[in-house]
Amino acid sequence: MSSVGTVTPDVHHTSHEEDTGLWSWITTVDHKRIAIMYFVTATVFFFVGGFEALLIRIQLMNPEQNLISPELYNQLFTMHGTTMIFLVAMPMAVAFFNYVVPLQIGARDVAFPRLNALSYWIFLFGGIYLNASFFVGAAPNASWVGYATLTLPEFSPGRNVDFWFIGLSILGVASIVGGVNFITTIINMRAPGMKMMRMPLFTWMTLVTSFLLITAIPVIGVALVFLGFDRLFGTVFFNPAGGGDPVLWQHLFWIFGHPEVYILILPAFGVISDVIPAFSKKPLFGYPIVVYAGILIGFIGWGVWSHHMFTVGLGPIADSFFVAATMIIAIPTGVKIFNWIATMWGGSLQFTTAMLFCVGLVAVFTVGGLSGIMHASAPVNLQQHDSYFVVAHFHYVIVGGAMMGLWAGLYYWFPKVCGRYLDETLGKWHFWTTMIGFNLTFFPMHFSGLFGMPRRIFTYSADLNVDIYNQLSTVGAFIFGLSAIIMTWNLIRSWRSGEPAPANPWGAPHLEWSIPSPPHHYNFPGIPEVRSREPLWDPKERADIEAVTMAEPEREPIMPNPSWVPICLAAAITLAWALVMTGVWWIIILGMLPVLFFTFLWAFEPAFPEGH
Question: What are the CA-CA distances from residue 226 to residues 141, 146, 150, 176 (Å)?
């Protein structure tokens, strides 16, 4: 597991990454290829989760419909939430981490390339395992929050919940591995002169997000282990009949769940903090404040979890603390919004598709943030809890924030990935159908929630008089689905025959734009020296950097060997977790043997070409 940071660039080595066959992708440890695989896989799951959402919206379009069964409905909304959070939003952010961060900090790869590949394959197999539950008639059906005691065997006797807790456990391994990798990369592998306060904001938010990952994921891991023991081995961690406490599940889940919100949103904040200055042609307003605000959001995010639990009865003192913390965390978030607006103010604005998505994020995330402040009031929260108002708030934050930010990054960095522009006409169609479809889908949910429509229900009474809001939401969902089709067609079309793009098509200031598009497999022929925060906006510094980054090296840098061990180890880890479902101790132990075997091979496999 050697770091590529110690590699010298003066020994010739022919790269395996020049191969283009399927085997070269299966065995790749190149961070750029792994990023592309993350993005493509997350996009496939995006359509899976979107299809589930459309079936939900068709069922709810009119009151008292029976187009799908209540059991299938429970499976659909559980898998929709699980898929969109764990299989779409998180891995799509990781795709950007993988591709962009090494280029922004002047590194040739991530710190642990094989560990990076392992993370991807575990994510892929975990996602396949979760969705395979549909084919055996046992898809998870207890909602993506998995509240006890609903998930205990007496209330969920099938294998549905087993697929859920094991699938999330597998995905958690991938997240922790990835977090460790990015922290190590950012701290140890920055180019000479790139001090912490010279790093691009996207790299900063990647660092904060990675710390949240390695600290939050173990919390839900503990909860899932407790749940597994309750279901398979007869313990009573969450069973009040045996002295357990179902509220313990809520605490453990939301101690993870609220940092998880910032795991999803901070990468998008990082994206637009880089994109807005590029298309405003001026540095980010208040760079240090934006950095400190991101760190503060990550820190305070650990102290707000119980605003999800105001209905539990924690008492006035505990409720008061979480009311205050929830209001306080709005401050650094609001600071970022004003920084972005101040950056645009007086700038030479270019309203490309990437910039439009940035402006869209600021608009819709502000709506979600304001409704979040409403939930900080415990009496108001009691009224809105578990209603469609909360569904509206959550989607304005996660879809309006996280996904719009990542789509801004897609249009911004796509030319770097393949040397071609995404089509701007199709891009603007993508943006406007997204804005119209998104708001038409989720804004009416505020009203259906306030009129008393509970979330997670199979149907509703006509007496609620929320028909029109549900019909608008269903129409909006189909427009939103159309936007995803437009985006995908734009990606496929532009990848094949898009307009060629130069190395720095946007005139952006950071290191990733100082190298050819697409980059060499080794990224940088020589590692440049950084002297400022926006190095490519200083003519002399840009010339010095490009003299290093655009040159052809006399001898190609040594890069890590490709490896088939990560995919085998990932399959072994997935199998070991899957065998937990048997509940038989000796089968579970046997399942660990392939993991030990491939770990042994990993330890003795040469990471670099022989002699280096």
Answer: 19, 13, 14, 19
Query: Domain map of the chain by residue range?
Result: 4-604
**Distance of alpha carbon 245 from alpha carbon 166, whole angstroms:** 22
Q: Are 263 and 213 in contact (CB under 8 A)?
A: yes
Cα separation values, 299 from 282, 293, 360, 596, Å: 29, 10, 26, 36
Q: Is 299 exposed, middle or buried (0-12, 13-18, 19+ CB in 10 A)?
A: middle
In order of 98, 552, 610, the CA distances from 525 in angstroms are: 19, 6, 22
Segment 324-373, tens digit of pLDDT: 999 999 999 999 999 999 999 999 999 999 999 999 999 999 999 999 99
Q: Do the Cβ atoms of 219 and 247 come closer than 8 Å? A: no
Q: Give the pLDDT confidence of 165-174 residue by residue, as tens digits.
A: 999 999 999 9
Domain 4-604 carries which CATH code?
A: 1.20.210.10
Q: How far apart are CA 569 and CA 121, in angstroms?
A: 9
Query: Could you read off the pLDDT of 201-223 as tens digits, one per residue?
Result: 999 999 999 999 999 999 999 99
pTM: 0.94
Q: Is 140 exposed, middle or buried (0-12, 13-18, 19+ CB in 10 A)?
A: buried
Give dist(CA 433, CA 416) in Å, integer: 26
